[in-house]
Amino acid sequence: MNSTVGSLGAERLKAPPMSATTVRLQTISSPEAVATSSLRRSFWVRDASTREQEFQRDRELDDAIPLHSLQPTISAREVPFSITDASRTAAIITSVTLVTAISTLLNGLTTVALPTITTELHIPDSMQLWPSSIQALTTGCTLLFSGTIADALGSRFMYLAGTVLQAGFILGCGLARSSAQLILFRGLSGVAVSLCLPSAVSIITSSFIGKRRDMAFAAMGGGQPVGFSVGLALGGVLTDTIGWRWGFYIAAILNIAVLGIAIWGLPKEIDDRSAEGPQSSTWRHKIGRLRTEIDWVGAAVASASLALLSYAFSAITGSTADIRQPSTIASLTIALALIPVFILWVGRQERLGKPAIIPNSLWRNRTFTTICVAVFFT
């Protein structure tokens, strides 16, 4: 820095004085240069006899100021949070894989054990489809709500809450003594799964980059078919031996193990919003975000449409003749009518600059639209 100051000495004698406004503006773009200049603002008003003394003093001050202290502060949110520790990586990938595998495992188990469950719990013919299908129905209908709530409260918190609830509802399925209890707990377990899935995706994107992220997504996706296959085999074995209820007991125990892994493996920094302000991590702030940053009407309309459409399809799957039933016709009609209502609503929200759960402009992105269509048909 001494050589730099020396080389600029002659030019400094001819340079015009810097105003306070100029100093403030240049501080934003070049803090080092302004720090040097601000130390010499009085240089131009000194007489010639004292300039050399001032110049020497400024050189000493320049040497005393560490340059790193003049660098602009980078907020924590601008730096990507990435986990490189092998044990933490294994814990997160294991947790998100198992939490998805457990839900599909129980679907496979219920499919195989359904005849025995129907006989034992005296499930009427019109309700025999629901123990195996209601979990997927409730999961799909609440995903939008779960994802938006996770944005406000934090993905780690929502993931842990969903894991706790899933363990409790799975245990309730095993303890059910009537068809109504079994169907109720199966539906509630689907809601718990919906709390975990969007949060798991957010956790992966927040924790990993590069190959680790690819590995985590691949493991999470692979857990679904593997879990279903294991559930088919396990359901057959347990039904013929100790009973189908033990499948739910084992899944609940496994879910508690997943909870323990998640508590240890998921860093608290995932939900840290301190960079947005000192009050951003408080519960009052988070509840405020729930009120102001979530499109509750849009989420309700979309979820209602999905629920009615899924209900109609489930009824038709049980018996194609049910398509003529008034309830099925009404469900299909309302579900289809809610689609344009949803489009108009989110369009209004977007025009007014308010939160829209799925903005219409998002579909103009060809990559996003193509992926969504491909996943839908898959």
UniProtKB/TrEMBL annotation:
GO molecular function: transmembrane transporter activity
UniProt cross-references to Pfam families, sorted A to Z: MFS_1 (PF07690)
Membrane-topology descriptor: Multi-pass membrane protein
Record localization: Membrane
Name used for this protein in its record: Major facilitator superfamily (MFS) profile domain-containing protein
Organism from which the protein derives: Friedmanniomyces endolithicus
Transmembrane keyword on record: yes
Protein origin, superkingdom: Eukaryota
Keyword Cytoplasm: no
Residue ranges annotated for the Major facilitator superfamily (MFS) profile domain, each copy included: 92-378
Main location: membrane
